[in-house]
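WARN retry 2 of 3 for item q-0093 after timeout on previous attempt; input resubmitted unchanged.
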Amino acid sequence: VKMLGEVGDDSVEITPDMQNQTLESKPLWQRISIMLAGPLANILLAIFVFAGLNMYGVWEYTPIIGEIEPESEAAYAGLEPGQLIVSVDGVNTPNRQAVLERMLLRLGETGEMSMTVTYPGDSELRYNVNLVLEDWLKGAEEPNPIEGMGIRFIRPKILTVVGGVLKDTPAERAGLMVGDKFLSIDGEAVKDWDQWVDYVRMRPGKEIELEIERDAQVELIALVPEPVKLEDGSTIGRVGIYPQREPWPDNARFRKRYDFGPALVNAVEKSWSTSVTILVSLKKLFVGEISVKNLSGPIGIAKVAGDSARAGVEYFVQFLAVISVYLGVFNLLPIPILDGGHIMYYIIEGIKGSPVSEKAKWLGFQAGLVAIVFVMVLAFYNDILRL
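OK item q-0093 returned
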């Protein structure tokens, strides 16, 4: 899609009577408005989608600490299981998403992160802690700030009971069934699901004797984990089952519904915070505080879209809204060839009182195209490696 008379477009011969129809013949404010229209439409779409989800009702997860990793930043700061995180760096964090967003803004940095915590049901007593950062998760691929801090939020307990058996897997061939409770593996008592997973991963192609409880009877089952090769070249074992979980604790999540006004305000705030996170992340990529391996392209977007669709319509629609914010913000970047690049030229024109020369524009558009192509190639490369 091109505007009539756009720089570098010779596909249409512009006759004298068409001059007043070209983009450059329009007043400066109209040209800026035209370039703003697309990105603003993206952001407005996201706001109305977020607002609709807020009125429909969204699940919010309370940031209650379930576990603290030993010898982690959180452990050294004195954080404890059972505490509720109420703010990070002075900004209120009513849910886990808010905690994640505040932590994302500190990736790759050195200094202190302040955090205020309390205990659920005791909002009067609050504790302030400072977590020490030193090039925090700098260069990490797909960093998880919360786990990187040594924090695991409260979650449903994973039981050592089979919740599902995948088809055509060692588990199905060995006869494992939903409801089987693990008692021991190779004579060693099974304490938790993680122990079972670690044991299987370390034994690709080796027979395991599993003691289970089924219908109040103890049975022995032999199975051989199939070898699975990972991206780094290592091989792990996999049997093809997933566990049962306990229900969510009452204080760990709640469904929140908003009236129209508050829903719209919250949607604007969510779109704004997402935009800030995008811009800060871009800055961190540029200065090297975040690894370029975190860049993702169409393949990565498609994968996340598929994952969110499988999680449910609510998650998929929310993903579309987030992508819409990304499109709006990226298009407003002051890079020639993007809408933001055009706006930059128009602002320069308004300041100097005359248009930027055609040669300067053309060189800028070429440089912008090279930059976009470079980023896209890098994003595709990262996506393919992740596959």
